[in-house]
Amino acid sequence: MSWFIQQALAGNCFIGSTATAGVVPPAIAGNTHTFALWNPAGSGAYAVLNRFTLAPAAVTTTVLGAVGFGVTFNAGSQIGTGAPIVAFTDATIRNAILGNSHVSKMRFAAASGAVTTVANPAWLYGPGIFSPDGDMATSLSNVQINTQFDGGVIVAPGTAIFVVGTAAVAQTYNMALTWAEVAI
Asked: CB under 8 Å to 181, separation ≥6 — which residues?
């Protein structure tokens, strides 16, 4: 049995997802974000990333660009003027055991403009996801991207990660992230 399955059975794995309509990943050269996982300082836990999925949610004209993760270190635990994270609209985090009452220690956002940061995030990780150049206005690709982290990225307290594009890709995606929370 895999480590992630053991963690899920213990109630330590969580799911964050966009609404069915999805969101457009912003360009990394900006401070307004749509999909974020924030491990607040003082949480006492690591977020061990398991899987990220991304699928086109609407037909549109796309712009060539990579989709990956940006990171903000020293993100603290509070939002507000002068803090690294100025605004954060929380979205629902579900336990991987559906119906389990064990609550995540992380904060998650998954809506257009849900997060505002003081500075642009730094580029962290490009898992090989790209927005194809061309017109998808007449057909929607059946491609779904699955990135398996297998614990290869661990988000420490006081760190936030964001899904971003190398450019404003203009494509709406349905996204989901799963992770395990492990006490420090």
From this structure: 12, 13, 14, 45, 46, 47, 48, 104, 105, 106
